[in-house]
């Protein structure tokens, strides 16, 4: 127990500071925001992550958002276990045809108003997999998309800027 | 002296005649044995008696015929068994009644090629859900890569799950969309009270047609695709595919490139093990470890980005070499990273080792017996925590590992704790390996010119990823184009073990059982 406390104290706080990104910064990061979250929402958004066919690379970087360096919860962004609790769907992968109905149902189960963020090259444009007998390609081929964050996979920094851009509180 | 000579004599004794090719190509030592289709099962029976491990199964179409392959291994010596069957009425006796590991693989081949495995114990579809018709087979040559999909693919409603009867038995359906940030798949539990009576996995949700869209690609393009079979094993899959292509093309990678491949592969192993160890602790609500390990992982990934230009090391390995060199400054940085991680672990590990709440949850939970681990041919930390003393890096060596020795972590405790500690031991071994790679990094080129392989040349890449052995089969068509690509992720062998190790555990312990195995859904579904 003492070891643990000692380690916690000596580690200190590693969380890094981030400013809300400017529009041109979003552009250079390959982030496109078509619609922003209503001002009334700002300060707290609940995210339901849906892997609709990714290779799991994007999931690793989304996980990193919760590590102590990024600690995305301090911006009021938290991940929830059910689409019924969510404001935002964070969708990765080209949408595999086997996941198409599951994604549509998840979208339907999310209460209005809702926003969809497509994460990673596959979700944005089909990426390495494109469209085929097994893949619908981009998320926008299946459900409406409000924000796209490119990258293979996008870095946690790009993910955070994209999410902060979405909840722009200006 | 390897086992094949004796084994060949035994095959003669049971009346199996075979056509022998001593190696699949000029570089590899893997032999190809071609037998008649009627002996397919008898071969498996003889192989099981001799304790051969079933490794992988795949098929391919050649005009009016199908070529079916199964790969076996013993003491690090691999053999590809092959038979040719007529495409008009493609049938083959099953090996799944002999080797349970062949079960899902044969069902995959059945769904993708329409090859019927006679006497198969489970005739349900596996990879096919509803995206294509029962009488369509995506990997046949006459099936277009675009297929003929309907506007909205219907859900796969009528899969015949095993039913439980009797008072107090109830079903819990979970997925495909899970409650965390994880990949999709379906689990069907039969439970009595909190106790798991049976678990059935239904995967295939992230089937992206990787094998089909690989056809016709160039080597560079296939390497990129292979790096996305399973994102967490991007280095290992890419390496396996490149190794297979390099064998086929008769290209020898410069030694410096092999060392850099070794460095990135071991860095990938460490990053994933750090993530898993944190996540296992998190699944039993021990967040101290989760926070510490994710912190270590993040710093480790940042060094990846600084030195190799990508946090997860995607596309660092390319056919015939590596994309980026390691400068002396970068070597210094990598060395500092090793010293730093060793120090951090020396502070964190004792607090975890002495923690009674962790002991309560992790010891004896999710027990996988060495017998079951062997029967399913499990690999990596899942196998090694259950007494399976096998590591491709030691037993079927490839550069740079042929120039070093290291200790393979093996335990026979078989529980979640054991899978946790095997990961820790592997991190320590990998740290030592990376130091040695950097210390002895040879001078020279980091890539060599590509040679267009002759038509029909094939290769079998075998490497050890963080989950264990990865097999990658490649055959070339004319003009440097890929004719067939089959990657076998370690998850394909490990997933069935999850159904066994959760039995008699309580439902709330399923997440930690699952995390301790950490199968890749994408690598399984292709």
Describe the structure.
The complex is a heterodimer of chains A (170) and B (526). Chain A has 170 residues and is an alpha/beta fold. Chain A has a single domain, classed as Rossmann fold. Chain A has helices spanning 2-11, 23-28, 57-64, 100-109, 121-125, 156-166; strands at 31-33, 45-51, 77-79, 88-92, 115-119, 147-149. A 6-stranded mixed sheet of chain A has the order 1-6-5-4-2-3, sandwiched between helices. Chain B has 526 residues and is of the alpha+beta class. Chain B folds into 3 domains: 4-118, 2-Layer Sandwich (Beta Polymerase, domain 2), CATH 3.30.460.80; 169-202, no CATH class; 210-525, Cytochrome-c3 Hydrogenase, chain B, CATH 1.10.645. In chain B, the strands form 5 sheets. In chain B, strands 1-2-5-4-3 form a 5-stranded mixed sheet, covered by helices on one side. In chain B, strands 8-9-10 form a 3-stranded antiparallel sheet. In chain B, helix 7 packs antiparallel against helix 8, helix 7 (255-282) runs antiparallel to helix 14 and helix 7 packs antiparallel against helix 16. The model of chain B has no long low-confidence stretch (mean pLDDT 94). At the A-B interface, helix 1, strand 2, helix 3 and helix 4 of A face helix 4, helix 8, helix 9 and helix 17 of B.
